[in-house]
Amino acid sequence: MLTINCIGAGRWGPNLIRGFSNLPDVRVHMVCDLNEQRLEMVRQRIPGIETTTDPHAVIDDRTADAIVVATPVQSHYALTKQALDAGKHVLVEKPLCGSVEQCAALSTLAKTRGLVLAVGHVFLFNNGVRKVRELIHSGDMGRVHYIYATRTNLGPIRDDVNASWDLAAHDISIFDYWLNAPAESVTARGECYLHRPLDDVVVASYTYPDNVLACAHTSWLNPKKVREITVVGEKKMIVWDDMDLIEPVRVYDKSVNLERESEYADSFGAARMIIRDGDVLIPKIAAGEPLQAECRHFVECIMEGQEPINNAAAATQVVRALVATDDSMRAHGAEVSIEAPVESGAQELVATGI
Asked: Is the separation of the CB atoms in 151 and 292 below 8 Å?
C-alpha cells in the first residue's frame, strides 16, 4: 500500500486527491490547506482522512511515501525541496518552479536522492494528444510546417502567474512532446487589460528545430472556452479539439504543392500552386481520463523505479520557454533565444508503459 499526502486543496488539489483515492493499493492519508473551509469539503468527501493547516506535518508524516504539491507557483520550490529532503517522492503541479535555477536544483536533488519527481503536465496523458504524436511520427503527414494553439476562456483569473505561465505551459509541453525537442527561440506580446501586473492575454511564437513554428494564443479574457491545436504538415493537417469529447482528432488529407512547369518557361506562369483537398479522417480515440492516467503513472514510476514522462528535466525546458516568453514581452516582442538543455536527452518524451 502506497501512502500519499497532499498539500493544497484549492481548484486542482481535490481532483488529484480524487485521482489517487481511486487507485488500488493507494491511500491518501493527510491533506493540508490554509483554508479550513476547503479542508471541511475534503473531510466530507473522504471520511476518515486527516487534515491540517501545517504543511510540515504532511511532509514529516513517517507513513507517507509521496507528497503531492498543488499550491501557487511561488511555493513550489520550498515545499518540493522539503519533501525531497525528507525522502518523499513528489508530484508537483505545473509549472515546476518560477525560475530555471530552482527547477534545475530540484531535478538534481531528486536524482541524487533516487526519488521520483513528476510535474503535472497532464496533457501528456491525454489520449487525443498522444494520438496526434503517433500520427506526426508515423511520417504520413510529411514534414511539420507549423503548429497553432488556442487556449482561451473567461477566467479563471489567477493572481500568482500570468496567462502564459498558466495556459501556455500546457501547450509548450505538448509542442515539446510532439516534436521531441525544446523550443529554440520565442517572440511574444502580452497585455494587462484588467489593469493588473499580470498579462491577461499573451500571443507567443516559438521556433523549433527544422524551422517549425509553434504559436500559442492564451487568454483568460475571452467569451469562449477553446482548447484547440492545429498541426499543418507537408502532406496532411491535423486538428485536436479537447472540447470535442466524441471526436477530438481530425486528420485532413489536404496540402499545397508548388509545381514548376519548365525551367525554360517565362517567369509569368512558370509555377503554379496545386491544392489537394481530400477526405477527413476521424481516428478512434480510446476513452480515458488524463488526470487518472497521470496519477497511475506516478504510482507506477515509484513502484517500478521508472523515470516519469512528465519528469523534471522536461518540465524545466517548459519553464525555460516561459521565462524567455516574459523576456520577449518586456522587450516589446523582440526575439529571445531559449537556452539549450543542461542535460542531453532531457526531451526524450517517449510514452511507454502507460
From this structure: no
Query: Given its phi and psi angles, is residue 61 left (phi above 0), alpha (psi -120 to 50 degrees) or beta?
Result: beta
Say whether both 10 and 119 belong to one domain.
yes
Task: Write the DSSP string, 245-299.
Answer: SS--EEEEEEEEEEEE--TTS-STTSEEEEEEEEEEE--------HHHHHHHHHH
3-class DSSP assignment, residue 217: strand
Q: Which amino acid is located at 286 in the chain?
A: A
Instruction: Give the SS3 label for residue 227.
Output: strand
Query: How is residue 325 written as a grid cell?
Result: 516568453
Pairing state of beta strands 117-120 and 89-93? parallel
State residue 339's pLDDT score.
79
Range(s) of the domain holding residue 82: 2-123+291-310
Residue with cell 485521482: 19
Coil, strand or helix: which one is 162? coil
Collect all residues with Cβ–Cβ distance below 8 Å to 187 and sequence separation of at least 6: 204, 205, 328, 333, 334, 335, 336
- CATH number of 175's domain: 3.30.360.10
Answering whether pTM is above 0.85, one says yes
pLDDT at 275: 75
Cβ contact 293:128 at 8 Å: no
Element (H, E) at 113: helix 100-113
Q: SS3 of 84, please?
A: helix
* CA 71 vs CA 6, 14, 49, 97: distances in Å: 10, 12, 19, 11
> Cβ distance 339 to 320 under 8 Å?
yes
**Is the Cβ–Cβ distance between 229 and 149 less than 8 Å?**
yes
What is the CB neighbour count within 10 angstroms for residue 75? 17
Query: How many domains in the chain?
Result: 2
- The answer on 332 and 198 residing in a single domain is yes
Residue 206's SS3 state is strand
pLDDT at residue number 353: 36
Check: CB of residue 204 under 8 Å from CB of residue 186: yes
The one-letter amino acid at 233: G
Question: Quick one: which of 159, 155, 105, 144 has its CA closest to 315?
Answer: 105
Are residues 142 and 148 in contact, defined by beta-carbon separation less than 8 angstroms? no
The answer on pLDDT for 105 being more than 60 is yes
